Amino acid sequence: MSYTLIGKHEKDSRANRDGYVSAMLELMEQDSSMVHIDCDLMGCINTGKLQKAFPNQTFNAGIAEQNAMGVAAGMAATGLKVFIHSFGCFAARRAFDQAFLSAGYSRLPVHVIGSDPGVCAAFNGATHMPFEDCALYMTVPNAIVIDSCDYAQTYALTKQLAKQPEISYMRLIRKGFTTVYADGSDFEIGKGVTLRDGTDVTIIASGILVDEALKAEEALAAKGVSARVIDMHTWKPLDEELVIKAARETGAIVTAENHQVSCGLGSAVANVLVENCLVPQERVGIQNRFGQVGPQDFLMKEYNLTAEDIVAAAEKAIARKA
Amino acid sequence: MDKKQKMQELRVFAAEIRLETLKVIASRGFGHVGGSMSMADAMAVLYGEVMNIDPKNPRWEDRDWFVLSKGHGGPVMYATLGLKGYYPMESAYTLNQPNTKFPSHTDRTMTPGVDLTTGSLGQGMSEAVGAALGNKIQGKSSHVFVAIGDGEADEGEIWEAAQFAAHYQLDNLICLVDDNKRQLDGAVADVMSHGKGIGAKFDAFGWDVINVEDGNDVEQIYDAVQEAYKTKNKPIALILNTKKGKGATFAEPSGAHSSQPTQEQWDEAIAAAEAALAEIRGK
Ligand SMILES: Cc1ncc(C[n+]2csc(CCOP(=O)(O)OP(=O)(O)O)c2C)c(N)n1
């Protein structure tokens, strides 16, 4: 695992989906057993490129996610490595029974890509805004669940997922958000990345909240508070060692996620703390609410997903230290 | 009023709906133009003539119901309901803005006149079937109309609902298929074809099927609904041969699914829709 942090809070000029597509183009070229299935949403994540370059390895299942998931499992059983995409809401909620049994329980390498996670669904609104997609996949024994944050990370983790023998789910931010990492950065599934070291509190974030966490660290530093920042791209299996170390060394934890806190990163971290090292934890994320329509920046404020919210949570967690 | 006059009024209403649909989407600058515009004529027939409704009392219990199962067509519904007086038309020019009552996909918790929530394709069909059964066993003589897309017909749920509706002989259910030959990734024939056709599928599921040769012609749609009313003990599917983007200068030629035209293109499209309305009014 070697990475270069950019973290200047600048908008990524590239769309994250192209991180997925570039990785898949290389994987498909090297390995004819790599397959991509889409559900009439190729236009949304540019997988038309895969279809053009590898028409025998790319399939459009139409608007029929349950069937697509079952087909993915069947193809995987014949020895293929199958990636399947829909919007996160449908990739999780709509096709979940098939994902759980046909793929998960059957121990087949089906890699599910869910685009437009949480508030990134923006103008598609409530019906398309999954705050529970990771929660569903986290209930599948052995599943890998990932919330990737930018182009470079999506590219690197797609390459890693292709080697995994069982089901996985990765959230894909469709557009360019912020650049966190330089190209060529590498990551290990299940290993969090400590981006900033600190002693007073640890912020554990993923996806679109990583950049907010970095901003929060800077704001806290200006107030004389030393915050550690961890990019926890893999929610399952969770890097428990890193969480415990952070709890022991900083004595307070803030989690930050674009997902319901009651069944996502916040709760996964809380589970570890309860069993190993009980310290104050505050959870930034969706608090038992449904989605709604609007621009992403408005939604991030509406659901309290900003650097300011992380700062306030950090101060609260620190104040709660015994 | 004789039928000729009635049809003229519906043609005017359809042109008004087209113009307002464009204005609603233009207020945000981008959106699902294609699948909204193809539905304008069917909406004009339903809300202009066929359906028994009360815009001042949207949840009136004896009303006819309408479910836009292809929920991304929200703007055409917002235009229609606004023109019917469910709310001031301008309020729909907040489409997809923060705290709007007019989200991308039709939502029963938000917009007066929206009977059921849709957006996850396939679900509206089952919901409509449920409403038809619910109304029926409570002795209502009303109808439930549901509109689905030809791409949406890929969903297994559509056919599970079709099977249920035929089994329970729901002759108070009329399904309009917006057969515009396109879905998100392109032509239906290329993305996921329908074997012997969507009409043949409904027929195999035990429905009465009426093919509407020009699904953008109000008279043909109107006649088909009158024909459908005669059916007993079966649900009815109207296959509307439509054009995606119909009447939107920037979307009709390509049949695009969603569009983000330039300001000039918006101005051109709205001017063209105004001219089309004036021309029809002049007839
Ligand atoms: C279950 C589900 N899968 C995918 C989508 C994303 N989606 C929205 S519209 C659309 C294409 C719909 O095509 P069609 O039903 O033919 O509608 P029309 O062409 O009339 O707009 C897709 C794939 C969705 N809304 N719901």
Q: What are the segments of chain A in which pLDDT stays under 50 over at least 5 consecutive residues?
A: none
Biggest sheet strand order of chain B reads 1-2-3-7-6
Structural class of chain A: alpha/beta
Q: What's the number of extended β-strand segments of chain A?
A: 12
Note the beta-strand portion of chain A: 15-25%
Bound molecules: thiamine diphosphate
The helical percent of chain A reads 40-55%
Number of domains of chain A: 2
Count of individual beta strands of chain B: 7
Using the coordinates above, name the CATH class of the largest domain in chain A: Alpha Beta
Architecture per CATH nomenclature, i.e. the level-2 architecture of the largest domain in chain A:
3-Layer(aba) Sandwich
Run of helices and strands of chain B:
HHHEHHEHEEEHHEHEH
Instruction: Tell me, briefly, the overall form of chain A.
Output: globular
Give an overview in words.
The complex is a heterodimer of chains A (322) and B (283). Chain A has 322 residues and is α/β, with parallel strands linked by helices. Chain A folds into two domains: 17-172, Thiamin diphosphate (ThDP)-binding fold, Pyr/PP domains (Rossmann fold, 3-Layer(aba) Sandwich), CATH 3.40.50; 193-320, Rossmann fold (3-Layer(aba) Sandwich). Chain A contains 13 helices and twelve strands. In chain A, the strands form two sheets. Chain A has a seven-stranded mixed beta sheet with strand order 2-1-3-4-6-5-10, with helices on both faces. A five-stranded mixed beta sheet of chain A has the order 7-9-8-11-12, with helices on both faces. In chain A, helix 9 packs across helix 13 and helix 10 packs across helix 11 (265-276). Chain A is globular and about 60 Å long. The mean pLDDT of chain A is 97. With 283 residues, chain B is α/β, with parallel strands linked by helices. Chain B has one domain: Rossmann fold, CATH 3.40.50. Helices cover 42% and strands 11% of the residues of chain B. Chain B is built from ten helices and seven strands. Chain B has helices at 3-26, 33-37, 40-50, 74-83, 123-137, 156-167, 188-191, 198-204, 218-229, 263-281, and strands at 65-68, 144-149, 173-179, 182-183, 186-187, 208-212, 236-241. In chain B, the strands form two sheets. Chain B has a five-stranded parallel beta sheet with strand order 1-2-3-7-6, with helices on both faces. In chain B, strands 4-5 form a two-stranded antiparallel ribbon. In chain B, strand 2 (144-149), helix 6 (156-167) and strand 3 form a beta-alpha-beta unit. The relative contact order of chain B is 0.16. The chains are: A alpha/beta (322), B alpha/beta (283). At the A-B interface, helix 2 and helix 5 of A face loops of B. Bound molecules: thiamine diphosphate. Thiamine diphosphate sits between chains B (34-35, 38, 70, 72, 119-122, 149-152, 178, 180, 182-184, 244) and A (40-41, 63, 90, 94).
